[in-house]
Amino acid sequence: MLNNYFIIREVAKFLNKNINGYLIKEIYSQEKNKILFELVNSNNDDSKVLEFSIEREYNFLVLKNNFSKAKKNYADIFEEIYDKSIIETVLYNSDRAIRVKLKDEFEITFTFFTNKANCYLIHSSKVINSFKDKDENVNKEIEEVLPKRGKTETEGMMNVPLKKYLKMNYRNYPETYINEALHRANLSTEINIEEGNLIKIRNEFDKLEHQLKEPGYYLYSRGNEFNLSLIHLGHKAGNDVKEFDDINQLLTEVVKLKFRWEKTEKLKSSRSNELEQKISNVLKKLEGIKKQLMHCEDSDALRKTGDILLQNLSVIKKGDKKFSFVDENENEINIKLKESISPIENAQNYFDKYKKQKSSVNILKSKITNLEKDRVRLESELKAIKELSDIKKLIKEEKQSEDNKKDETSRFRKFRLNDKYEVWVGKDSLSNDMLTTKYAAQNDLWFHVRGASGSHTVLKVNNKKEDVPKNSILAAASIAAYYSKARNASNVPVAYCEKKYVKKKKGFRVGSVIMEREKVIFVKPALPPEN
């Protein structure tokens, strides 16, 4: 769509008007299949960037007024032509290639062939470098590396399918223009070529050729489908149409739209996969809980087993491994017993299991109800994502999600003591570890309750030269005591030291550390008044 002959012809004309006389300042690649040419005019007061992509679906050449070069991960290319001036830009050999002629017999040739798109550096008609497949192309004449052009057949084409005739005689025309010619001639590709319709189709292509010599620049779109064209398209009636001033503006817009559409599809795919995985997890949980429920709903069998044992206490002895009897259907039933307990304790054991399972039924039913709600909600979200066409909403949600992931400190509880001091507290072993090893500065004060498990607590100290007030230390210690197993005690010993004296040795489990040079204070567990 971006690399048909007529588009490339217009690009060559546009560049010939807009970059001749410019110097090549730098050439580099910072993406796998793109090469960038930084250009500057002779007065060094205007710069542009020529961007060439050889991606199969993104084979284009556009001129940009602004472009930010990456600070790293780029490769310089074609240094032989730095500071060379551009003399002329032309269509090469009336084919899908553009030749940029430079000073001192250097040339750059951009090719737009679907499977052979490339950029060649040429000197004195020979390839001296290429963006891709350098070893294969160097020292060859440019004609040797370009695909051979197919021959146009004009004879013996009567009574062949119109589709075959068009393919052989109008190979330069993209599908959009072929469909337009058929639309104007009111013909279908399913018919065979005859004298009458042959004249009609040739006349329409003659008209198209004339219009393409004095083109306009149009973008036809409907939903996620869009077509760029240099002529008005009657067969696209009903599409939205946007007109541009030149080919460069049109191509730039199409590339932007294609990128946006692909990003939308990528985000939709990612979000859909995530939701499908969540739905799968919910279904697995449902299956497991339903099995538990079936088992629990059969709890009456446990009660009956206990009754049977009570009815047969006289024949069961402590140390028996099982009690066997024949039921009313003449089936032998074996009841397992614990050897270490008495017959009545075995009966009570079955009664306890019965009560436990019976009480679990309502809990399991509640879990099933909640999981079914989750399943319906997730399936609704999945459907909405698959039908979503608004990229802005999706990108906004994705950005919020990324921002949440980036702000790891949201995993900590935070308490503002005053204008100078803030206390951060871990919520679990992972966030404890993260707080201590990643987000506590060397001069921050680190707190932990003595003799009880609790959260890592850090008093953030911004000014290392200033002594921390005792009331702030006591407040931080009270918070540490509050988020510990000693929360309900009235007087709790809390150890503290500078974070640089908190050590995590190799092999320690997550959240485990040792303290050196600690001090101990006794405080009442509490949070600051405003919390």
User: Whole-Å distance between the termini?
Assistant: 61 Å
Major sheet strand order: 16-17-19-18-20-23
Low-confidence stretches: none
CATH top level assignment of the largest domain:
Mainly Beta
Number of strands: 23
The helix content is 25-40%
Query: What is the approximate shape?
Result: flat
At CATH level 2, the architecture of the largest domain is Roll
CATH superfamily of the largest domain: ibrinogen binding protein from staphylococcus aureus domain
**Structural class of the secondary elements?**
alpha+beta
* Count of folded domains: 4
* Largest beta-sheet characterization: 6 strands, antiparallel
CATH topology of the largest domain: ibrinogen binding protein from staphylococcus aureus fold
Mean pLDDT: 87
Per DSSP, the total helix count is 12
Strand proportion, as a percent range, falls in 15-25%
- The Rg value, from CA coordinates, equals 39 Å
Account of the protein in words:
It is a single chain. By secondary structure, the chain is α+β, with helices and mostly antiparallel strands. It has four domains: 5-145, ibrinogen binding protein from staphylococcus aureus domain (ibrinogen binding protein from staphylococcus aureus fold, Roll), CATH 2.30.310.10; 162-243, no CATH class; 276-387, Helix Hairpins, CATH 1.10.287; 408-523, no CATH class. 39% of the residues lie in helices and 23% in strands. Strands 16-17-19-18-20-23 form a six-stranded antiparallel beta sheet. A five-stranded antiparallel beta sheet has the order 4-3-2-1-5. A hairpin with a 5-residue loop joins strand 6 (86-91) and strand 7. Helix 5 (175-185) crosses helix 6 and helix 7 (247-297) crosses helix 10 (391-406). The radius of gyration is 39 Å and the shape is flat. The two termini are 61 Å apart. The mean pLDDT is 87.
